[in-house]
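__Protein archive entry__

___
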Amino acid sequence: MPRDLEIAVIDDDESFRVALVESLSSFGYEADGYASAEDYISAIGGRSFDCVVTDIHMPGMSGLDLMRRLATQGSTTPIILITARSDTNLEAKAATAGAACLLRKPFEINDLIGCIEGAVKD
């Protein structure tokens, strides 16, 4: 059973983002969606999330670039990367960047929940 966790969902695909926010909300998470990494950065102010789920490939700042930027700011928020691409070296890039998980679209919501719960546990 999900705990009261706040999850940020960042994806430029509006229909996917909205569906993912709704799915996470239906499982008891407080989920907010952002259309880009830049929107997320400008909107959060001093707010922090328990976990960030972000697409890797987006116009402007990529999910990997967002991870690097947050890390330079001292953020320890776990980040789960998602992608529709099949690049073979993405796992290595995600691991090097410190991602909690890498999921390839389409994925089952239970796979994402497993990643979230694994990323936020003590």
Observations:
- The chain has five helices and five strands.
- The helical segments are 14-26, 37-44, 63-72, 90-97, 109-120.
- Residues 18 and 33 are 7 Å apart (CA to CA).
